[in-house]
Amino acid sequence: MEAEAAKFIGAGLACFALIGAGIGIGNIFGNYLSGALRNPSAAPGQFTNLLIGFALAEATGLFGLLIALIILFG
Amino acid sequence: MVNLVVAGAADPMAQFAIKRIIPLELFGYDISFTNSSLFMVLALVLISVYLIAAMNSRALVPGRLQSTAESTYEFVAGIVRENLGEDGKKFFPWVFTIFIFILTLNMLGMIPGSFTVTSHIIVTFALAAMVWVVATIVGFVRHGTHYLKLFVPDGVPIWLMPLIVPIEIVSYLIRPISLSVRLFANMMAGHTMLKVFAGFAVSLPFVAKALPVLFTAAFTGLEFLVSFLQAFIFTVLTCIYLNDAVHMHDH
């Protein structure tokens, strides 16, 4: 296999990290919504925590994207 | 990274190319005034003009412009109060500057044909490194060497310490990276995706052009949300890191 082809395959594989980020973000928003429907009055107080959780879950996926970018352009 | 990409109209990466406007060199370093610098200066001028104009009248009952400035202030003050408590007051000007600077840069980037400064990792990393260094210095000034206890959580069995302490140290050291990569990757990925779908509108046959155009229009709205959300998250995490430094784990 040519090195160039292996680079592209590797970059594609690194993007698999975004699967986990997708699951994580879906989990966070889904659980927030089900919690908010049970107790709507407590929901606004947890909105900041929701966004922090979203940001932390997203960051792990973006690390994978960063690896892909480093492979492609680094 | 961007320099390696061949510049061309249809290239989704061409929008991130840095162009020298006024080439300058100092002691062998390239300190040219680029389009990136231009947009940072533009953001600075816009923020200054907006805030000075809004607060010029200082009316007790605020007008429209003054209310927008006051609600921006109150929004950031709320984040600082919520995360840092009363101790956060002296960090407020700094946190407010970070928030409004990132927000303005993100929003300027949403103007078609403009340049998104925050889509470059070097800019976001400089901001995140500043946050991390300030938080660490504040921590050591406040607590001295006791600050290192941040890496030793309470209530962990002693035999778990060899595992927990390295994890805590790594998670502390990775903070500037995760903070900068989050902002940079969000801005870069979003803008690239918009460009890719705009490219589909050019290349697809006549009737099918409508789909990518509609998608791009809808996604531009989402990008505005992401622009705001990332500025907000950067600010919240700055406050959380500062809170670790000021209060450590106890409250």
From TrEMBL, chain A:
| Record bears the keyword Transmembrane helix | yes
Give GO MF terms, alphabetically: hydrolase activity; lipid binding; proton-transporting ATP synthase activity, rotational mechanism
Q: What does this protein do?
A: F(1)F(0) ATP synthase produces ATP from ADP in the presence of a proton or sodium gradient. F-type ATPases consist of two structural domains, F(1) containing the extramembraneous catalytic core and F(0) containing the membrane proton channel, linked together by a central stalk and a peripheral stalk. During catalysis, ATP synthesis in the catalytic domain of F(1) is coupled via a rotary mechanism of the central stalk subunits to proton translocation.
As recorded in UniProt, coiled-coil segments are none
A Pfam family per the record: ATP-synt_C
Q: Where are the transmembrane segments?
A: 7-30, 50-73
UniProt keywords (A-Z) are: ATP synthesis, Cell membrane, CF(0), Hydrogen ion transport, Hydrolase, Ion transport, Lipid-binding, Membrane, Transmembrane, Transmembrane helix, Transport
**Which gene does this sequence derive from?**
atpE
Protein name as it appears in the record: ATP synthase subunit c
Organism equals Hyphomicrobium nitrativorans NL23
Tell me the compartments it is located in: Cell membrane; Membrane
Which Gene3D superfamilies would you find in this protein's record? F1F0 ATP synthase subunit C
Q: Which residues form the V-ATPase proteolipid subunit C-like domain?
A: 9-71
Q: Where is this site: Reversibly protonated during proton transport?
A: 58
The family database entries (InterPro entries) matched by this protein are listed as: ATP_synth_F0_csu, ATP_synth_F0_csu_sf, ATPase_proteolipid_c-like_dom, F/V-ATP_Csub_sf
The protein's predominant localisation is membrane
Q: Which family does it belong to?
A: Belongs to the ATPase C chain family.
As for membrane topology, the entry says: Multi-pass membrane protein
